[in-house]
Each structure stands twice: as C-alpha cells, then as structure tokens.
Specification:
It is a single chain. The chain contains ten helices and 20 strands. The chain folds into two domains: 351 residues, Kinesin motor domain (Kinesin, 3-Layer(aba) Sandwich), CATH 3.40.850; 72 residues. The chain starts with a strand and ends with a helix. Strands 1, 5, 6, 7, 8, 9, 10, 13, 16, 19 and 20 form an eleven-stranded mixed β-sheet that branches. It has a three-stranded antiparallel β-sheet with strand order 2-3-4, with no helix packed on it. By secondary structure, the protein is an alpha+beta fold. Helix 6 packs antiparallel against helix 7 and helix 8 packs parallel to helix 10.
Length: 449
C-alpha cells in the first residue's frame, strides 16, 4: 500500500486580521522525506491556556507551504506527480482539512477561475488531464475521451447531488457489500420506477467542466460555524473520471434496465404474498391454518417469477455489456477509468474553553458540528486502520467514510494526500493546533507501508 502524504499550508492573514499577532512557527527536517512543525502562540493569546501555548508534531509532514506559495505551487508538489498514474487508469484521493476559514475551498477549488496560477487542485488537475486527452483524441479517429464529473455534498446522513438541482440522495450499503448513493424513487411512464444514482456530467473540454463545477458549487450549503457565519457545513466530494460517450451511455442503460425491473420485481413479490395469504385462514383459537377452500395458484407465482427472471437477465446483460465495453476501450486507451477524487471537508469544529462556543449557533448548527467532528474522527481512524493493515477498517463509522470506501480501495496502489489548511493568526491558535495534531496522527500512520 502506498503512503498517505500529509502537507500543511499556511494561509495569509485576512484583512480583518491585519495587526494581529501571528503564531510563531518552525520547521525541522527530520529525514530525507518528512518534516516536523513546531508552533508557539503569543503568551497573551486568549484561545489557549498558558500551559498549551506551544506544540511540536512528530516527523509526519511531506511538505509545508508558506503564505506566499500559490495554488500552482501546491498543485505541482501534491498532485502533478500522480497524474501519469491516473492516465494509466489508476485512482487517487485528495483531502483538504482545517477549521472554517482556513482556506480549504481555496485550495481544492479556488476562486479565481481565470488565473491558471490560482486554480484549485481540482480544476488544475482537470486542465492538465484535458490537455493530455485532447492530444490523444487528435491522434485517434475512433473513441473520443473526456472527463465525467460528479459533484455532491454530504450532510448528516444524506448526499445532495449538486449537478442535479440539489437532489437529496441516500447512502446505502447493498447486499453485495458495495455502497450506493441513490436519489428518491421517481415514478415514470409505463409503470417504470427509477432510482437514479449521482449524475455524471460528461465534459469534452476544460471550459465546460469549469462551468459545470461553478454551477454546482452555487448550491452548496453554508451556515454558522464556531469561526464565521458563511462556513461550508458539508463535505463536498468532486469525482473526475476519464471516460467516453459510449461508456456513459452503457452505464445509463444499466439504470434504465434497473428501472424496468423494479415494478416487475414488486409485482412478483405481491403475487407471491397474495397467494400465501389466501392459502391460510384464522381458526377458532386465532391461529393461522391452511385454507381448505383455496389452493395456491403456483402457475401464477411461476409466471410472475419467470417475468422477473427475464428482467433480471436484462440487467445482467446491460452490466456485462458495460464491463465488456470498458475492457475493450481500455485495451486501446489505458487511461479509461482513471479517477481523481477531491474532498473539501467541512470545517472542523472545536470548543474554546475560555470563550465558549459561538453564541449565535442554533441547536441544529451545533448538532451539525458534532456530526462533522464524528465524520472527521471516522476518516482519521480509517486512514490509520488501512496504514496498519488491520483486518477491520471502520468504513461504516460514518456516511463520509462509507462513501469514500470504494475510492480508498481503488487507490491502494497510488499516492493519496491530505492538505492541512492553517491560519497564522494568534486568535486561531487553538484551531490551528488541533488541525496540526489531527494531521500529524494521519501523517505518522499514513507513512507506514
């Protein structure tokens, strides 16, 4: 298993922090690959007790970015080396962790969509992949390669599809042990019932992908955190997958076949239950006994089950076609199915023992804060369990880790990374220290092979 890399990124002081004292910090190169970081808050800092003014991490940081390092510098150090593996069909995951207002969204997505030096990791990666795919497409007269984007946010126990009008979806584990994110049941014509998965938008150039991402992000939920009033209170997950139009159509066909199966399967179940209910009656003692006046119509049951089996075969056929098509195209283009997953984690919550929690938070917002902390703790434990190669990895501990299970499993042979976004302001000393402690634990565990 490849190591899980951890980076720290100091943001600059914001306009309302100018004039504030800064956290003192020092970097120590402990070996050829990992560094430790030491911080010390000004003695008069109100956010920490006198005995908790300083702290030093273990050798756990792959790299540390200073305030003058732009997004392009971060991309080159964190993601660029992984892209050749993605173009070989591999997967890799990247996380931004930190307290609200520390720069997570700026790092993962960015706000300046026109300046290539300030594109977040997601868009910078998409731009580089699109350039490479354009070169491949120019040399190829058959398959046209593009990037499928999925964008959704996780809030409590639900996922919301940001590319499908913020449609609420549900995280469920299927009988096959796989985790599925499905929307609400839709009633279609001819009795069809569809449960649509997270929508994939196929993009054939960088400009279209950037527009889709920006459109979806406008629907992302914000709220009051312990730091400020417009904090992202959800985990945003962005998936970029190299695909073709034919592959996307084949996956849509599976959903269509599944939609056709639902009412047929329900009818077969209803028929069976009806026949079984008619075959029994209540006796004088209130017990169910065989009904002497009715004989189970096994022919009716068999006919319904046969029709159900026919529609199940159609689903399997669609799945086999998708698998066969994937294998066929991947023999021509090894990059097919290559995937990058970027997770802009919700701002970590902390409790300021001196000043108390933010007074204008509602009970619901406090509950959301507790759920966010539960998710982040679960993520840390999953990373540590995988690094230690434990027999049981606690993916079921939270909806976040359930959703990420398939991505962790798919990226076991490639590098993944977490960027800790931290503030130099003395007033954020407690939050910065908590972020570095979290990252140090992840980094120490993730470096084990």
């Amino acid at each position: 298993m490849q190591p899980f890399r951890v980076f720290a990124r100091w943001r600059s002081l914001s306009a309302d922090e100018s004039g504030h004292e800064e956290i003192q910090r020092e970097i120590t190169q402990n070996n050829s690959t990992l560094s430790s970081i030491s911080i010390a808050a000004p003695f008069q800092s109100n956010s920490l007790s006198n005995r908790d003014q300083s702290w030093s991490s273990q050798p756990s940081m792959t790299g540390i970015f200073e305030i003058n390092d732009n997004n392009e510098t971060v991309f080159n150090a964190v993601v660029a080396s992984v892209l050749p593996r993605v173009l070989q069909g591999k997967s890799s995951n990247f996380f931004a962790y930190g307290h609200s207002g520390s720069g997570k969204t700026h790092t993962i997505i960015g706000y300046d969509y026109e300046n290539t030096e300030n594109l977040g990791l997601c868009l910078a990666s998409a731009r580089h992949l699109m350039q490479e795919l354009a070169r491949v497409n120019a040399e190829n007269t058959g398959d046209q390669l593009g990037i499928g984007i999925r964008l959704y946010e996780l809030r409590k126990n639900s996922a919301f599809d940001l590319l499908n009008d913020h449609c609420e979806c549900f995280v469920r584990e299927g009988p096959d042990g796989q985790v599925y994110i499905r929307g609400k049941t839709e009633m279609l014509k001819d009795g069809k019932v569809r449960v649509r998965p997270i929508v994939t938008k196929a993009c054939w150039n960088f400009e279209d992908l950037s527009r889709e991402l920006q459109r979806g992000l406008k629907l992302r939920a914000t709220g009051t955190s312990t730091v400020h009033d417009q904090s992202s209170r959800t985990h945003a997950v962005i998936e970029l997958e190299i695909m073709t139009k034919e592959l996307l159509e084949a996956r849509d066909a599976i959903v269509e076949r599944q939609s056709e199966l639902v009412p047929v399967g329900k009818y077969a179940t209803d028929v069976y239950l009806e026949e079984q209910i008619r075959a029994v009656v209540l006796d004088e003692k209130g017990k169910y006994v065989p009904n002497p006046d009715y004989r189970v119509d096994q022919g009716r049951i068999d006919a319904a089950e046969a029709r159900k089996a026919d529609f199940e075969a159609r689903v399997r056929s669609a799945e086999e076609h998708e698998s066969s098509l994937f294998q066929s195209i991947s023999r021509r283009h090894a990059c097919l199915g290559g995937k990058l997953v970027f997770v802009d984690l919700a701002g970590s919550e902390y409790y300021d023992a001196k000043n108390g929690s933010r007074p204008n938070q509602t009970a619901q917002e406090k509950q959301e804060g507790r759920q966010i902390n539960t998710d982040l703790l679960a993520l840390k434990e999953v990373i540590r369990a995988r690094a230690q190669k434990l027999a049981r990895v606690p993916f079921r501990s939270s909806p976040l880790t359930m959703v990420l299970r398939q991505h962790f499993q798919a990226s076991s042979d490639t590098d993944s990374a977490m960027i800790l976004t931290i503030s130099p302001s003395a007033r954020d000393s407690a939050a910065t220290m908590n972020t570095l402690k979290y990252g140090s634990l992840v980094g120490v565990a993730g470096d084990k092979k």
